[in-house]
Protein 1
Amino acid sequence: MAAATHNITIEQGATFRLDLLWKDSTGTPVDLSGYSARMQVRQKITDTAKLLDLSTGNGAITLGGAAGTISVVAPATATDDITAKQGVYDLELESGSGVVTRLVQGCVTISPEVTRP
């Protein structure tokens, strides 16, 4: 299965949220019990620096088990530090047996913050 392409916008200085539902080819939600997930945002694919580094390990991604839901949340304190205007991302899920699936990928537009403390 090839990764879906879904372009996103991150508003600088605001909480970013992305909610997904992973279904198999029959439309049944994939049971994510035992899975872990990671999502990185970089200005360019080849950059070593990450604009955002989100995962189940750091609490930024929550998986919904048998419901197949994926909830990605980056707090405003994390998006506030992004100075790039655009970037790229992907979201990978790893099963308990080590199989990695890139579920979604795309371009990121950063909407600059006007109101600042």
Protein 2
Amino acid sequence: MLWLLSSVAAEPPARAQENSQALAARALFDEARRLISAGQFAAACPKLEESQRLRAGIGTQFNLAECYEKLGRHASAWSLYLRVAADTKALGQPEREQVARERARTLEPRVASLVLQVSTPVAGLELTLDGSTLGPAVWGVATPIDPGEHAVGAHARGYAPWRAAVSIPDGAAHITLDVPRLAPEPSAAPAKPAASHELPAVKSPSPTAHPGDESEPDHTAPYVFGGVGAGLVVLSGLFGLRFLHDNAEAKKICASNGNACPHEDIEQHESLLSSARGARNAGFVSLALGLAGVGVSAVWLLQDAKSERGSEHVALRAELGPDAALLGCSVPFRGF
């Protein structure tokens, strides 16, 4: 209940900040369109990038892809066209999807690629391209890249770093760069072990505890888990209804105009799409956490009812990755 009250109290400032960002994003978008009409693409692209950062929208993405294409950044434009196609497909807008896919198909023959070949990797090797880390899955794979000068680096703890510059010509060039084996440093410090994501264990009630003991367990904990979990499941349904409503309203605005949506309707259209995406993501997160809470509560109560031995533990563990987060629990099974 306190959490809900604090969320309501914090809503007006958050709404004001969102409106300010929307207005700034709109101003940047309009200025970028003016610059594009004047042929000043180098000045227009950064404004579209900032507009997209402040308020993501499919229309802004499409215009940014066009701007990149005019500047000769074929890989960036091609990638954005495909992203627009995927987003419009998910929102049920086939005309806009077709336009974006056709642009990507036309541009694909002009996209250059770079292959970073690692023949003898050392332990803990990391590669960077223009400051961004490339995981081992990308090594040896032809990666789309814009024309121009690019910085490549390789480093690993205990080894001297390696750097190189590669020039990508305009057109469908395919460049391969061999990354040499790193030379060890004279005084290499041992690598520190990776940090654990193990969360503190939560003790389950002990069947041998007696009234008056200082360590008497709190029997309300599993009910709290279950109540919060059930509430989150219900909340996910509300988010789902919000997604269906906003997505349907957005499709009504530009359903028959393809990519030529009236200029005055773009802001409302993008606002509805942003709201729909936010509701969809919030619904998925609420459902996952709610099911986890209900599951922990059910297993906890079942084990309490059948326990015949001393105190055990319910262990929670979080696995964090670049594209996903997993919350799990483990409870010792004592039999029936």
